[in-house]
Design goal:
The structure is a single chain. The chain has helices at residues 5-17, 35-47, 55-68, 87-98, 102-114, 122-130, 155-167, 175-190, 214-223, 231-244, 250-262, 270-281, 287-302, 308-311, and strands at 204-205, 208-209. The chain is mainly alpha-helical. It has a single domain (5-311), classed as Glycosyltransferase. Strand 1 and strand 2 form a beta hairpin. Helix 9 (214-223) packs parallel to helix 11, helix 11 packs antiparallel against helix 12 (270-281) and helix 11 packs parallel to helix 13. The longest helix has 16 residues, at 175-190.
């Protein structure tokens, strides 16, 4: 397999070849179409800015996503699931980029703005006042987004929602949306690990500092691109730079590359490292991994440091 543009074409062709007949993608070739995998595959192909031959592929993906949207505007993890979830953010973003689905995007946006996590409500506050937590210390009044309704805020779904909101033009954002965005940004800063970076949830448990992870840190940094001068962001970038050379997984490497590039940080050439990783395990034919690899390689080929929303989708 060659490097450079042909290298990226190889992975882009993998996505095109493995699109299901219904228009979606599963997590692996020949598996049932899932909302998350379809949204990321569509986003990656849109980012390629390929010529018209991809228009039919992307249109069929868009149509599949429109068919599985729920009446309340959300998207479930899989077709037919009884409730919407965090995937609404990445689908709404993909459809906004694709175009031709304005009403669906607006419905998804409304659902997200009104989908509150469980912490901070009356019963949560009452329980905390009676039985204060000694396990994890965090400001539960700062709420972002959760994986599924009725659960607490988590770093990654909050980051995905913020990246989507940042990508929209101002006229599409209501005052309520702006307030939710600000609250969620504060929540991410509150959840940062003491030494920089993020893990999936709590930064401090039983008085012990949480260990940052590549994925949550990369997503959080892309979501907080407007705060590049803040000490917390600079500290987290330094942590990610220090960890970058020790990454051994293609998905983590692609996400870290996107995040560092969004801030104009220097990173080593991505294609040779991916060649080496691919020779060992073919990325386990994972559609999410390959979609993120396409996004990262597109940025490397462009040679331009992207904005946070571009980095998450191009």
């Amino acid at each position: 397999m060659t490097s450079g543009p042909l290298h990226n074409s190889y992975f882009r062709d993998f996505l095109i070849t493995n699109q299901n007949t219904d228009g979606g993608w599963g997590y692996h070739p020949a598996s049932a179409s899932s909302v998350e995998a379809t949204a990321w595959a569509l986003t990656a192909l849109i980012s390629s800015r390929h010529s018209p031959p991809l228009s039919d592929v992307c249109a069929r993906a868009r149509d599949w996503l429109l068919r599985v949207q729920r009446a309340d505007g959300s998207w479930p993890a899989l077709p037919g699931h009884p409730q919407g979830c965090w995937a609404t953010s990445i689908v709404s973003r993909a459809l906004y980029l694709q175009g031709g689905a304005q009403k669906a995007v607006e419905s998804g946006l409304r659902w997200l703005i009104n989908a509150w996590p469980s912490e901070g409500n009356f019963w949560w506050r009452l329980r905390q006042s009676i039985f204060p937590s000694r396990v994890a210390l965090q400001d539960s009044s700062l709420r972002g987004w959760n994986w599924t309704p009725g659960t607490a805020s988590w770093v990654e779904p909050t980051a995905h929602a913020l990246i989507f909101l940042r990508s929209l033009p101002a006229p599409m954002l209501s005052p309520q949306a702006a307030k939710r965005r600000q609250l969620a940004e504060r929540m991410l800063f509150d959840r940062m690990c003491p030494g920089g970076g993020w893990n999936s949830g709590n930064p401090l448990v039983y008085g012990v500092a949480g260990v940052p992870r590549i994925g949550p840190t990369a997503w959080a940094l892309m979501a907080l691109r407007d705060f590049s001068e803040r000490a917390e962001v600079q500290m987290s970038l330094q942590w990610l730079e220090a960890a970058y050379g020790e990454i051994h997984g293609a998905a983590s490497l692609a996400l870290a590359n996107l995040s560092l590039a969004a801030y104009g940080r220097r990173v080593f050439r991505l294609a040779p490292a991916l060649d080496e990783m691919y020779s060992h395990n073919r990325f386990f034919a994972n559609v999410l991994t390959i979609a993120w690899v396409v996004l990262a390689l597109n940025e490397e080929m462009s040679g331009v440091a992207p904005t946070a929303e571009e980095a998450a989708t191009r």
